[in-house]
Amino acid sequence: MNDAGTPAAAPSAVSQIVIPDSPPRPAPPSSTYVDPAELVRSTASKAKADAIKTWAVSEIDKKGKKKKGTLGVGNGAIFFASEADKARL
Q: What pLDDT, on a 0 to 100 scale, did the predictor assign at position 47?
């Protein structure tokens, strides 16, 4: 209440709100559409096979049995070849 006995007016909430400027819009893409198949063809000729590194390792299965094999890493892959596997390359 103010000195005259009437309720005091609340401060204007609108004057306290701050609205920031909008961020700048990104520039439109300058490139044109390229067919994904064409991208694959163009990068396939540039790709080089890297060396595959191998290590002799042993794995212990759930039954506690040791399984010997080779761990290989390279050329975009990780593989394990067991000496006990029947398939020959």
A: 59
User: Using an 8 Å Cβ cutoff, are 75 and 50 in contact?
Assistant: yes
Residue matched to tokens 């394990």: 80
Confidence (pTM): 0.38
Distance of alpha carbon 42 from alpha carbon 35, whole angstroms: 11
Q: How far is CA 19 from CA 10, 15, 16, 23, in A?
A: 21, 11, 10, 12
Locate the domains of the chain by residue range: 49-89
CB-CB neighbours of 25 under 10 Å: 6
Give the largest Cα separation in the chain, rounded: 102
Distances in Å between the Cα of 46 and the Cα atoms of 38, 40, 42, 43, 56 are 13, 10, 7, 5, 32
User: DSSP alpha helices (H): ranges in 1-89?
Assistant: 36-44
Instruction: Give the 3-state secondary structure of residue 81.
Output: strand
